[in-house]
Amino acid sequence: MNYYSLHHKSPKTTFKNAVVEGLAKDRGIYFPENITPLSKDFIENIENYTNNEIAYEAIKQFVGDEIPTEKLKDIIANTLTFDFPVVPVSENIGTLELFHGPTMAFKDVGAKFMAQCLEYFNKKNKEEVTVLVATSGDTGGAVANGFLGAKGINVVILYPSGKVSDIQEKQLTTLGQNITALEVDGVFDDCQDMVKTAFLDEEITKTLTSANSINVARWLPQMFYFFFAYKQLKKLNKEIVFSVPSGNFGNICAGIMAQKLGLPVKHFVASTNVNDTVPNFLKDGVYTPKKSKATISNAMDVGNPSNFIRIRELFNNDLETLKNAFSSFSFSDDATRAKMKEIHKNSGYVADPHGAVGYLGLEKYNLNENEYGVFLETAHPVKFLDVVEETLPVKVAIPPQIQKVINNNKVAIKTSSYEDLKRFLQQ
Ligand SMILES: *Cc1c(COP(=O)(O)O)cnc(C)c1O
After folding, report:
1. Annotated catalytic residue within 16, 107, 112, 163
2. I want to staple 172 with a disulfide (CB 3.0 to 4.6 A). Which of 93, 137, 140, 286 is the partner?
3. Which residues partner with 183 through β-bridges?
4. Domains of the chain, with CATH numbers?
5. Best mutation site among 378, 380, 384, 387 for ligand 1, i.e. most ligand atoms within 8 A of its Cβ?
């Protein structure tokens, strides 16, 4: 499969190069040249396939012959090591829980899949690759875990000191081996700027790549979730509406890809916190990126969502077609807390702030009686322990995978300027 840059100034490239480079030379993100729907027969009989088989059917055309079939099946099996249940919350609403993986955030699937693709492509190279990634919280842990022990790959994670939760910090600073954490004296944007500077710095001779959702190998596996939900809900005989708590819009864009592959989906709702660049765009047709604002659903604090350009491409850059299939609504922290309380009171379900934003999106969409709404629970409530325990009358039990890291010792290198990062990379 070939991929083209959405800035249209770089030549087309292979899946392998798109994974290894991350971003095209013209700084555009990559998009697959063709999207061929899966057979009707497959979709109509989806309940007879295992999750691994479904994932293989969904992804194989995007990998092409660049990874042998058996190897790709292994990569999928190593990625999908946990469940993706749809849990009913009210009569016509359920939640697709994506947090049963090793770091309890949905990014585990993309990180693990990408790590194995990169490891495979880099196998023949003598030279080591350095994955450089800035995190505001969840990405760091998922990438650290996904890449742990990957041969020929070193991972360097920059995180803002004091700005990630204790659990998130432990997840990215305690693994050791090929993972190094740099604790940056600054905010997330400073970490991001340092990473960008390093990519442009010609004096750095190491091969650098990134592991955020612009990378096609992190983005595309997220299609699987939507197929797994459909497989569980098909027997209801209702039209499905997905509400996806969105930050960089990679997850929801993968959902729309699944729909392009033939998955029956009635409508997509991109639910955001007050970082409302996309909801505003749908209202007035003008795309105005903003500086991000801090909220209680902080994994979605993004003012210029990097994947939205892929969504526009999927609808041929036509606003009217986009609006027929896709809505986007923004909600405040107060509304989010109130909804967490209401969900808990009515059903006993403990939603994290991101999930609650997703629920609000479904309500605003206003389901009819032939529709079933699914909001994605993108993280386990334990990852946002302070907010959840302040808001709800509950004590969240610490799951085993979190317990394991809490007891380990943090190791991080203090970093206060780009020069510190550069010195580290040149060692
Ligand atoms: C990353 C993340 C999101 C946002 O996902 P995008 O693909 O960037 O839109 C939402 N919720 C949680 C918990 C996350 O970690």
Report:
1. 107
2. 140
3. 159, 414
4. 84-105+219-397 (3.40.50.1100)
5. 378
